[in-house]
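Data availability (excerpt). All sequences and predicted token strings are deposited with the supplementary files. A representative entry, Peptidoglycan-binding protein, is shown inline so that the format can be inspected without opening the archive.
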Amino acid sequence: MRRALVATTATLAVLVTATGASYGVLGLSRATDAALRAREVPRAPVTAEVAGVESLAPDARAEADPSTDAEPVPADPTSAKPEPVLEPGDHGRKVRALQARLAQLLWFTPPMTGDYDRTTRTAVRGFQGKRGFDRTGVVDARTWRRLVAMTRKPTGDVLFNRAGPPLFEPGDTGREVRVIQARLRQIAWYFGDVTDRYGPLTRQAVLGFQGKRGVPQTGKVDRRTLELLVGMTRTPTKDELANRPPDPADGQPLDPRCKTGRVLCIDKTSSSLRWVVDGKTQVTVDVRFGSSELPTREGVFSVYRKSRDHVSSLYHTSMPFAMFFSGGQAVHYSPDFAANGYAGASHGCVNVRDYGAIASLFDQVPLGTKVVIYWS
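Structure token line:
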């Protein structure tokens, strides 16, 4: 039966934020917000600006969740080594909270165990490295403060791997269901045309997605499932929702600097790259940019170097089909972008997730090709 939640006409929207790691934000109308609150079982109020889903974008919130977790006492500045807050071998609820916060940023894969084991240490080291901290694998006061500032306080359901109350489930109907299907289709869990009905195909797609992300497999969309889905995908376009072939540029106009000669025209507004020849778009692909800490430069550049099987000497990561345009910044294929969508960011490069398209472009784009990076 169609319930109050899905009777609303709210839309889901992703606000891709170029930050420490870019994540989606689910925007819901006040009516949907009220419906979400009414539908959920009574629990402690959600401390979010938008009750539906909090922002998952690290560093993007001007005010972080004032978590009730005890704030660690800063280490004595005269001490040679920061005092650990948590370290390998620790156990308990605080470790579960650490794992849950790391999971929000896709550094840790649930379930939460409460054991500070090798997997947890590896996740901490990854988080520290991304922030430019010493990769010790030990949570000192600085690491903990940054992690708390970038995430929200986990609920009891999250800490102990329980499914939350369903927000959407089989039998529901409405535009929100269509948007969920479109998001699942972006990451190859849902196939076929999107509809307004939450039927068996949607349930199977949700089950698969939940299993892959390590959350309770119910086939119903609870708050955590929705947050993960939004964090890994972008706002579906009108074409996607209408089952038309998508336009990655979403109808944005070409920059005037892209209308003569051969140009890699890269639009930060639509997160798209267009290969343009004499003002005519030949290919359009989705792209991802650097974080606020390592932003992708804007302006007019040119391709000065190409490297088919490049590996970063700085980050030791694979950069296939790299076309360098400004220092170490390049357009290149990103397996992480292909796997995780916009739940992440580059180190300043322009990431492409369509392997076939970037492989073809690499062969078409000559040295000296103009590169224009702009906001439309």
